[in-house]
Amino acid sequence: MISVDTIISAKWVIPVEPDNRILEQHSIAIKAGEIVAILPTDKCTQQYQAKETVDCPDHALIPGLVNTHTHTAMSLFRGMSDDLPLMTWLNDHIWPAEMKWVSSEFVRDGAELAIAEMLQSGTTCFCDMYFFPEDVAVAARKAQIRAAIGLIVIDFPSAYAQDAQEYISKGLALHDELRNENLLSTIFAPHAPYTVADEALKRICTLAEELDMQIIMHVHETRHEVDDAVKATGVRPLARLQALDLLTPRLAAVHMTVLTDEEIDLAAATGVHVIHCPESNLKLASGFCQVEKLRAKKINVALGTDGAASNNDLDMLSEMRTAALLAKGVAGDATAMPAHEALRLATINGARALGLDHKIGSIEVGKDADLVAINLAKTATTPVYEPVSQIVYATSRDQVSHCWVAGKLLLDNGKLTTLDEPDLCAKANKWRDVIKKSDSGD
Amino acid sequence: MISVDTIISAKWVIPVEPDNRILEQHSIAIKAGEIVAILPTDKCTQQYQAKETVDCPDHALIPGLVNTHTHTAMSLFRGMSDDLPLMTWLNDHIWPAEMKWVSSEFVRDGAELAIAEMLQSGTTCFCDMYFFPEDVAVAARKAQIRAAIGLIVIDFPSAYAQDAQEYISKGLALHDELRNENLLSTIFAPHAPYTVADEALKRICTLAEELDMQIIMHVHETRHEVDDAVKATGVRPLARLQALDLLTPRLAAVHMTVLTDEEIDLAAATGVHVIHCPESNLKLASGFCQVEKLRAKKINVALGTDGAASNNDLDMLSEMRTAALLAKGVAGDATAMPAHEALRLATINGARALGLDHKIGSIEVGKDADLVAINLAKTATTPVYEPVSQIVYATSRDQVSHCWVAGKLLLDNGKLTTLDEPDLCAKANKWRDVIKKSDSGD
Question: Above 70 in pLDDT, residue A442?
Answer without folding.
Answer: no
